[in-house]
Amino acid sequence: MNTVSTTKCILVAGFPDAGKSTMLAALYGIATDSNPNRPIRLVKYDGDSGYIQTLLDAWQRLNPVPRNTGATEQHPISLRLAADRVGEFELSLVDIAGELFRQLVIGSHVPQELLPKLDDVESIALVVHPMNLIPHELIENWEGFVASLEAKENASGGAKKLTPDPKKWIPDFMPSDVSAIVMLHSLLTKPFARRKIRLVVMISAWELVVQQPPITPAAWLADRMPLLSQMIHNNEDKIIADVFGVSAQGGDYNTQREELAAKSSRAETCFAVTASGDRVHFCEPLICLLVE
What we know:
9 strands, Rossmann fold, 9-stranded mixed β-sheet, about 290 residues
């Protein structure tokens, strides 16, 4: 395994409410924690200090982390970090806000304003939320499907009428795994197809994936996002991929708040689960994107 000594540019992508901001807060919280044995340590931070502090404060207080509405696009984040397994490295987080990611997918091409940001991307962290997926639906279930999406949008405060005609298809109905495939395809073609892309699918809020018998992240991806899973397996010549379940919160704030608050350090609560179901440190998916 080679030591990372150059800047690594990671694209963090996902739809609105996928959990990207909570993951960023947890990463920064772990990197600045007082525990001398933490796997990743902050050396230097370049970015909007007010933005990252807002995320960190909410995460430390067990409150929902404010979603990104473009802050990291206007103020790119650069973290100089040190990790035992990869040495010292600079991590540039190119975070496409969920709304811009949606534009990328619907347009089926990389918008002109994103080209300079994506030129140096070597790795992609694709964040998906298990409770916010748009599933594949049969035509016979279409009217109920539209109603369920509108109800979810209204519950989040959007009050959006998706379409006056339930039989009319619009891009909002595109299944989540199809959207992810469109995005990946854009980044696997010219001018970006210069080398293999490292991809980690991060299933956020893994603490909410309660199933008996327990399901592994790899099995979850194959079951809930089958087209994405197949696309990854069929493009091994272009993609070096892995999948993790990730819990940046460490547990359910509604049912485990007292247990989480009792921990001596907020960083102790986060965790990740490998494709095969083994529990590992929260930072393991990031390390996976960095190793040569």
